[in-house]
Amino acid sequence: MTQSITRLVTVGIPEGLHLRPAGELVSAVERFRAQVAVSKNGQVADARSVMSLLALGAQHGELLELRAEGDEADQAVDFIAALLSPGPNGPPSGAGDLPMPLDHNDSRKAAR
Amino acid sequence: MKFADFVSKDAVVAQLQAVTKEEVISELTDALLKAGDIKAEDRDDIIRAIMKREELGSTGIGRGIAVPHTKHPSVDKLVGTVGVSAAGVEFSSLDGEPVQLLFLLVSPPDRPGDHLRALENISRQLRDETFCRFLKQSKSTGDIMQLLEEADANHFGS
């Protein structure tokens, strides 16, 4: 079933959304059946493009909006949220092992 | 952040000679050395650090662009340079294409925000296809500097 999900996530990566996590985000998005957009203050980036993500210049502590559509939108947003806001055990390492996002990041506005 | 804030004018290389990743990183680092942006005793260590970063994943971000970089304690502000390779350099880029346009960045370890803002500026400006194409076609440092100045003055799209 096609889902449409929006979620706000605070960048928890100390150095911000730099090249390495942007590359990891692109690789992750490719594994899900979902179209994902990441936006900051209205500037929208395609989550399949490293350049597009870097152009957001998302610093630590800044708020990003994730918007996903597709059969696996929910899983894609979970994974990206965990990647952007890594918990004490670090960023996720595989799609089959999804750490749940922290409650304060889980401000989902619309589902399904 | 603008290009003028981190691109060392005297270190810009319009016609890169290198044909491999390590050579091109050395050529651009040497250009920073000649321009006085880094010290001779740090040259080898900076090249090693940039190559080590490349092992974690290529900084070739696609569309013929690469952003090799490292943090290094020997610099007290972000220094960077631009190089153009007409022939292209194999860089194991995300899209598999050789790179023609390189932005090499060396930043102080305690200033990750500046590094991020430089990446933001490079990515935002190079999304403009005209700017990207003109830069790759540049034949002189004068051409490159003029294009960077025009981009800083918002003469290109975004």
Measured by residues with Cβ under 8 Å of the partner chain's Cβ, the largest interface is:
A-B, 20 and 24 residues
Uncertain spans of chain B: none
The DSSP helix count of chain A reads 3
Q: How many distinct beta strands of chain A?
A: 4
Percent range for helical residues of chain B?
25-40%
Biggest sheet descriptor of chain A: 4 strands, antiparallel
Mean pLDDT of chain A: 83
Work out the radius of gyration of chain A.
12 Å
Mean pLDDT of chain B: 95
- By secondary-structure content and strand pairing, the structural class of chain A works out as alpha+beta
SSE layout and pairings?
The complex is a heterodimer of chains A (112) and B (158).
Chain A (H helix, E strand, L loop, with lengths): L2 E8 L8 H12 L4 E6 L2 E4 L3 H5 L8 E8 L2 H12 L28
Antiparallel strand pairs in A: 1-4, 2-3, 2-4
Helix pairs in contact in A: 1-3
Chain B lengths: L20 H14 L8 H13 L4 E3 L2 E2 L2 E3 L7 E11 L9 E9 L4 H15 L2 H9 L3 H12 L6
Parallel strand pairs in B: 2-5, 3-5
Antiparallel strand pairs in B: 1-2, 4-5
Helix pairs in contact in B: 1-2
